[in-house]
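ugh ok fine here u go
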Amino acid sequence: MRTITTILSAIALGAATALMACSEDSPKTTKLPEEPFVNERGSFAKGADISWVTELESAGYTFYTPDGNPKELFSLLRDECGVNSIRLRVWVNPAEGWNNIDDVMVKAIRAHRLGLRLMVDFHFSDTWADPGAQTIPDAWKEMTVEEVAVAMAEHVNALMTRLKTQGIEPEWVQIGNETRTGMMWPLGDIASGDNFTKMVNAGHDAVKAVFPDASVIVHVDCGDQPALYTTLFGKLKNEGGRYDMIGMSLYPDPSNWQQTVDACVENIKKVQTDFGKPVMLCEIGLDYTEADAADQMMRSIMAKGKEAGLKGIFWWEPEAPADRGYTKGCFDGGMPTKALDCFKEK
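structure:
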């Protein structure tokens, strides 16, 4: 049986190996202009998760500037909304191909060419992973935790090395998505001994073998509920979990967003004190029809969060069209609302 040590040694030796090249532009997108890379590493992240973009473009969706002109989404978010960072989810073997490594590479290259910083979000599933669904990839279902750790390292290495070959260095890498209940059930359920911690460490070490300076994130939902964070990060602390940053999600109700934001800010302060890690708001959203409330909410969490030490905010799928069944984006008819206007301010 291969060991995790053997795999990680191979990763370190092979990180610069030339691998399969990928297309720089998705089929429905005009070729991007060549522009110099703008490195803002370490500054406040004004981000967006736009992992749906290639699938939406393939289905014929178009995005528009505030004055109604069609524009490629990455450029639109950077130029019209003040976005400086992009988050991309990664699935292991998705049935339709979207969010697999090849698809992620298309989007990562587009972001990089526009000077946008990159967060990679490994779900370690063939589909959506969240607190209610952490489904182990089909190909890994019969594996032991030690074998899964090897498979994780190989999966992480495959994307990290592709990125390195293209000259792209992710600033942040998530090991799991909204993992308060663990990941890859039942093997990695948080009730299953220290298996979850072993998985986090396998992912962490695989990232660091290729990109030592990348910040490895462990991500939990409901940023306004400190008990969830005490449980999971207390477990990681007790079991020797290796990670660099705590990630949060926050989806306030439009009717009482102020209370939710204030509770989240207090939790940001608490987890930094309790666990000694910086915090990133990896996901946020509010219904696209509540543009005024979204604008006020974002200004509040950004100002108060910065004071509390928050390192950045990522809106989850701002471009999402409501007819796809998700209404917490912040575009209306393919055009940005005022929800991200605070990103344009210094």
